[in-house]
Amino acid sequence: ETLPVEKVNGRPFCMGQKLRIFASGRIPRRGMDDYEYQPLGSKLAKHFIISHNNAFYCIDVIQDDKVVSFAEIRLQIGRIIQDLSQAESPVGMLTMTDRDTWADNYNLLIQNEENYQSWHKIHRAIFCLCLDRQAPKFQANPNHPDKENDFFTHLAYHAIGAFGSQHCGGNRWADKSTYFLGPSGNYGFLGEHSNMDGAATNYVHIFVEGYMPTINTDQKLSQEDIQSIPHPQKLRWNLTPELHQKIQQASQLNQDAIDNLDFYVDIFTDYGKEFVKSQKMSPDGYIQNVIQLTYYLIHGRVASHYESSNSRFFLHGRTDTIRVGTIPAQKMCQIWSNPESTTQQKLKSFADAVAFHSQIAKEAVAGQAWDRHLFGLRIAALKNNMAEPEIFKDLGYQRCDSLDISTSQMTFTKNGFCAFGGPPEPGYAVNYSIQSNRFIIGCSACNSNPATDAKRFMRKYREILLELHRELSHAANSRSK
Q1: In the chain, fewer beta carbons within 10 Å around the N or the C end?
Q2: Given this model, what pLDDT does residue 120 score?
Q3: How confident is the model at residue 421 (pLDDT cuts 50, 70, 90)?
Q4: Cα separation, 122 vs 236, whole angstroms
Q5: d(CA 229, CA 63)
Q6: 231 φ/ψ sector (left φ>0, alpha ψ -120 to 50, else beta)
Q7: Which contiguous run of DSSP H or E holds residue 413?
Q8: Cβ 90 vs Cβ 165: under 8 Å
Q9: How far is it, in rounded angstroms, from Cα 11 to Cα 395?
Q10: What's the pLDDT tens digit per position in 432-454?
Q11: DSSP codes, 315-375
Q12: Which of 55, 54, 50, 81 is nearest to 178 (CA)?
């Protein structure tokens, strides 16, 4: 409650999601999980979990309502790193499967009291920190023109899957918001999405980047202090042969998902939002319609295209949907794919599509989109044992509900970006960060689908961005003469 209220144009956002960032987590259940977080006024957690070599350690970080010193936390991390030479059985991989499988394995795991206590320590922790020292380091020719793109792509694979159980996937605990540190000096945050959205995790990321330069890394502890600080508590697991088998199965399922992920990040530095704003267009609408046009030019049809929107002007608001595959976007795609279209026609159709996107984006933020309202109707019918409303059987609705592209904007500070896997198959998931003079764009697809290719998508996307810049700049120069 001490955080300043977030506002947009003077209107306050609901701050409820901030309560769920720390000391919270999912409990796996068949059909639907439970979720627990510590409400204000309760006895708050004072520990967090550090994982390394598949083992989990508990350290207390709050004493007398104050966070312990940087020097003490550094000491504890050093003790953890020195504690293990061989990796433990990757119990964390159990959390990386589908929810029903994890629910069954969770019930098996906690039959043992010591296992339950270890699980509960993790579940009630403020957060988890993964020391991913076993992650493979990025290696590339320093003169390769795509080395920065390839480096960010490498970081994305690290963030999403931690390179599987053979590297550091076993450090993850997917039911909680988790931080990780990699061998390249990279760090990241895995937001547990079921009870909070990207904006909440971005808030933490911005705070951390601002706080790091203020830390006094020269802090020292006296020998007396070192001897008085208890060693980290290593969490113990009693694993039966059946549980070992379940861990192996979970590891293989997770590895299969990682192997199926096709991901590519493009760092586009030719221009950014300042140029787009100079053309009197919304940067977000600009990016979204380039995504739609990219899909059309590759696949020959308008995509069922999802963009997440914020509904936090309302109490407990989460998200709604901006539908980017609009009639103006369709017209734009048809004009751009017609070799007889003039440059003027192409630019006007693009500007019209961006303007319409801006209109429906404002409507979505104001609670006037339709996806969540129809979802509420469907759930209301289900809870009241009523027949499913006819609209959900309509072919038009079913086409909209089967996504070709899922997108989200997450604009971080200069070196941050967002990555997510699990695109709709056959389809793409695209995330992007809009910055003053560059765009960071990540695209994921599935290797199992021969019709999609993340790198091909991003190359076509880059071509369109460059063509737009060239033609818009030329048009502006012509007007100024």
Answers
A1: C
A2: 96
A3: confident
A4: 12
A5: 12
A6: beta
A7: none
A8: yes
A9: 39
A10: 999 999 999 999 999 999 999 99
A11: TT--EEEEE---HHHHHHHHHHT-TT--HHHHHHHHHHHHHHHHHHHHHHHTT--SHHHHH
A12: 50
Are β-strands 178-181 and 128-131 bridged in parallel, bridged antiparallel, or unpaired? parallel
Longest Cα separation, the chain: 81
Q: Write the DSSP string, 416-465.
A: ---------SSSEEEEEEEETTEEEEEEEEETT-TT--HHHHHHHHHHHH
CA gap 199, 160 in Å, rounded: 18
Tokens of 261: 């992920």
pLDDT of residue 209: 83
Integer-rounded Cα Rg, in Å, for the chain is: 24
- Structure tokens belonging to residue 136: 């493979």
How many angstroms separate the CA atoms of 12 and 365, rounded? 13
| CA–CA distance, 474 with 32 (Å, rounded to integer) | 55
* 3-class SS of residue 1: coil
pLDDT at 42: 67
98 torsion bin: left (phi>0), alpha (psi -120 to 50), beta (else): beta
Q: What are the two backbone dihedrals, phi and then psi, of residue 9, each rounded to the nearest 5 degrees?
A: 55, 40
The answer to whether the CB of 417 falls within 8 A of the CB of 431 is yes
CB 415 within 8 A of CB 392: no
57 neighbors 135 (Cβ within 8 angstroms): no
Residue 103: both structure tokens together: 């629910």
Q: For residue 275, what are the CA distances in angstroms to 100, 163, 167, 365, 470?
A: 48, 37, 42, 25, 11
Q: pTM (2 decimals)?
A: 0.92
Residue 179 token pair = 């931080």
CA distance 29 to 98: 11
Residue 392 binned pLDDT confidence (cut-offs 50, 70, 90): very high
